[in-house]
């Protein structure tokens, strides 16, 4: 439990800082370009990479909060046991997908490290950008395992009251 609390803080901090720094960088770029008449060559690239990191970390956070998009049409016709089976099955499929992304991401990282590719403006190893995929998907798989435990073992179904109200 303590591990997940620490993970929550780390995810929230990384995603929030990434988005905050991105907003500051884009504001600096706009000011520099339109007021000072010169642009910052590196700010757009860094903002793009921060957005990528915040999206992948945000995927894990969304999984923790059970806020990923999902189609609940079939589930609405099932009883409690059927819902648990369908939800658990979708979680298992998501974990498998995350696993493929982690494996593929690590292969891509190894390739990028071997070739020594660098970002255009910043000049840092491009593998730092691609590292977001296996890290984000591994964190998301961990969160989905947590959700699978809650639904599959404890039998607690996700709260869909916010969806049911809009129907």
Overall description:
The protein has 167 residues and is mainly alpha-helical. The protein is built from six helices and no strands. Helix 1 (2-36) packs antiparallel against helix 2 and helix 2 packs parallel to helix 5. The model has no long low-confidence stretch (mean pLDDT 87).
Sum this structure up briefly.
This protein is mostly helical and 167 residues long.
Characteristic key phrases:
167 residues, single chain
Q: Can you lay out the helices and strands and say which pair or pack?
A:
Blueprint: H1 2-36, H2 43-64, H3 80-115, H4 127-130, H5 132-153, H6 161-164
The SSE order reads: HHHHHH
Count of discrete alpha- or pi-helical segments spanning 4 or more residues: 6
Cα(first) to Cα(last) distance is 35 Å
Spans of at least 5 consecutive residues whose pLDDT stays below 50 are none
Tell the overall outline. elongated
Average pLDDT, rounded to a whole number, is 87
Largest sheet: none
Strand content: under 5%
Tell me the radius of gyration.
20 Å
Total beta strands? 0
């Amino acid at each position: 439990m303590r591990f997940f609390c620490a993970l929550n803080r780390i995810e929230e901090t990384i995603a929030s800082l990434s988005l905050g720094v991105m907003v500051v960088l884009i504001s600096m770029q706009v000011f520099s370009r339109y007021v000072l008449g010169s642009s910052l060559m590196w700010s757009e690239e860094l903002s793009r990479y921060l957005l990528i990191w915040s999206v992948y970390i945000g995927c894990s956070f969304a999984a923790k909060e059970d806020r990923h998009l999902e189609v609940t049409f079939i589930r609405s016709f099932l009883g409690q046991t059927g819902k648990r089976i369908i939800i658990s099955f979708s979680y298992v499929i998501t974990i498998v997908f995350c696993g493929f992304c982690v494996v593929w991401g690590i292969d891509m990282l190894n390739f990028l490290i071997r070739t020594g590719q660098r970002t255009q403006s910043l000049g840092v190893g491009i593998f730092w950008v691609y590292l977001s995929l296996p890290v984000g998907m591994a964190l998301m798989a961990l969160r989905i395992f947590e959700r699978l435990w809650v639904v599959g073992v404890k039998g607690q179904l996700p709260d869909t009251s916010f969806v049911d109200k809009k129907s």
